[in-house]
Design a protein that fits this description.
Helix content is 30%, strand content 8%. The chain is α+β, with helices and mostly antiparallel strands and 132 residues long. The protein has a three-stranded mixed sheet, with no helix packed on it. A hairpin with a 5-residue loop joins strand 1 and strand 2.
């Protein structure tokens, strides 16, 4: 991709590695400007102060949760403690196992609007999902 299609104007080497990893897992959609995939990519690279490394076991989890947010109009959710600088396990409606992998997402009556991303299946430890 050309630099105009990358989520950062001056990507660092680490961001380049993260972007390559995201493309290899999620496909070219992460580069499509204005889509939930782009928004999640932009958030991971430019906004998220956690600044996970490309090889972090939590990067995919954090990306998928950001994708959930951007795919379901997260800015209109009733629960607003999401996409914060802290671990995902501390975000509203998220529960994790002892290893900090998402175990449940309980977004009951949260004003979600949109389509749940298929990528939610990549949360390998997810046992319960309730978005009713």
């Amino acid at each position: 991709p050309t630099s105009s299609h990358q989520p950062t104007s001056r990507p660092t080497d680490e961001n380049k590695l993260i972007l390559q990893m995201l493309v290899s897992i999620f496909g070219e959609r992460v580069l499509e400007v204005g889509t939930p995939h782009w928004n999640a990519t932009h958030w991971c690279l430019n906004v998220d102060s956690m600044k996970l490394r490309w090889d972090s076991p939590f990067l995919v989890q954090r990306y998928v949760l950001a994708l959930l947010y951007f795919s379901t109009s997260g800015d209109g959710w009733r629960v607003q403690r999401f996409l914060t600088p802290e671990k995902e396990c501390n975000w509203a409606s998220i529960s994790c196992n002892a290893n900090d992998f998402v175990r449940s997402i309980m977004m009951v009556d949260n004003n979600m609007d949109g389509t749940l991303p298929m990528e939610i299946t990549m949360l390998s430890q997810l046992e319960r999902l309730d978005v009713s």
